[in-house]
């Protein structure tokens, strides 16, 4: 039997919170179902696969409409290196899931692992991407996309996804995973033979994509990675500052902008953003100094002219304010004026992106690692979720042959 290592798998267990309207809920069978799942997991951890399967099938007899036992059975077969049967069982689970099923990303992740372990890397990547569509900060899925892409010879995708994985593991304080992701990243960096400048540009580009997708959690981690590689990268500080400002973390945004401005005072976007924050903090002299410096370099900069108009209006100097508004209007297109004024008067609604905390399962990991082949990095990692019990109970269903 091949040796393979799995980052984590899903088990249905613990915290049985039932609501009257839950689709898979059967209160009277709760304890029996729980017992079979618990015993099945105990057997699996003891590598007693035969009895593990017996218990999981018994749990399925109680809840034939519940996809969770099929997922657990698939995991047993993955442990036995019977990947085709594992995929078959996962397909059975997929047929049972409803629109509101809360563990789809785990199902797709396990599909991806099966195909990855079976060296079907293209199919594996598709399933890992499906998991990421549901849970965008799924570090383990990024890690395996990197591994699969490396196996397919796509060095760029491998490198970028290893960066995403290691940043998520860092933020989530998964030290063992972070060590392995770092190892993968540096091996890919050497293999891809990218220059330092190219690597920085790639990471910033991925951060921009994350920002466009409103995934500020990932964007911030990528930009922080750039700063860790290049402590004077003003663009990373600037983009990071804008995220903090949108999240209403103005002090943090101010701090980042001051650093960006220190490293590149000639960038008008950085300078004006900093001056605008100074105005918010009523640091009028500092703001005025920066606005005037921009105007000296670019006397027809509409943003700077409007900023000065608003600043003088706030200071009660209406004539000065009108002067700068008039100058701004004379050099701006109508749509630019509207856009700028609208943002000043009606600030954009801020949607803060934070790490998704899954309520339905906990996780724990081991530190056992291996460099065997390209089959993964960790062994015996499990997601432990609460079960969703079926409304339909059939205690007389025959146990399926496995």
Relevant terms:
Serine Threonine Protein Phosphatase 5, Tetratricopeptide repeat; disordered N terminus; 18 helices; mainly alpha; 3-stranded mixed sheet; 64% helix; 402 residues
Compute the separation of the termini in Å: 18 Å
CATH topology of the domain at 30-101: Serine Threonine Protein Phosphatase 5, Tetratricopeptide repeat
Largest sheet: 3 strands, mixed
Summarize model confidence as the mean pLDDT: 78
Tally the helices: what do you get?
18
Class from helix and strand fractions: mainly alpha
Strand content: under 5%
Layout of secondary structure:
Blueprint: E1 9-12, H1 30-45, H2 49-62, H3 68-79, H4 83-96, H5 104-117, H6 121-134, H7 139-151, H8 155-171, H9 175-192, H10 196-212, H11 216-229, H12 234-246, H13 250-263, H14 268-280, H15 284-297, H16 302-314, H17 318-331, H18 334-345, E2 361-364, E3 382-385
Parallel strand pairs: 1-3
Antiparallel strand pairs: 2-3
Helix pairs in contact: 1-2, 2-3, 3-4, 4-5, 5-6, 6-7, 7-8, 8-9, 8-11, 10-11, 11-12, 12-13, 13-14, 14-15, 15-16, 16-17
What does this structure look like?
A 3-stranded mixed β-sheet has the order 1-3-2. The protein is elongated and about 85 Å long. The model is unreliable at 1-21 and 345-402 (pLDDT under 50). The protein has helices spanning 30-45, 49-62, 68-79, 83-96, 104-117, 121-134, 139-151, 155-171, 175-192, 196-212, 216-229, 234-246, 250-263, 268-280, 284-297, 302-314, 318-331, 334-345; strands spanning 9-12, 361-364, 382-385. The longest helix is centred in the middle third of the chain and has 18 residues, at 175-192. The chain is mainly α and 402 residues long. The protein is built from 18 helices and 3 strands. Among the domains are: 30-101, Alpha Horseshoe (Serine Threonine Protein Phosphatase 5, Tetratricopeptide repeat); 121-192, Tetratricopeptide repeat domain (Serine Threonine Protein Phosphatase 5, Tetratricopeptide repeat), CATH 1.25.40; 194-264, Tetratricopeptide repeat domain (Serine Threonine Protein Phosphatase 5, Tetratricopeptide repeat), CATH 1.25.40.
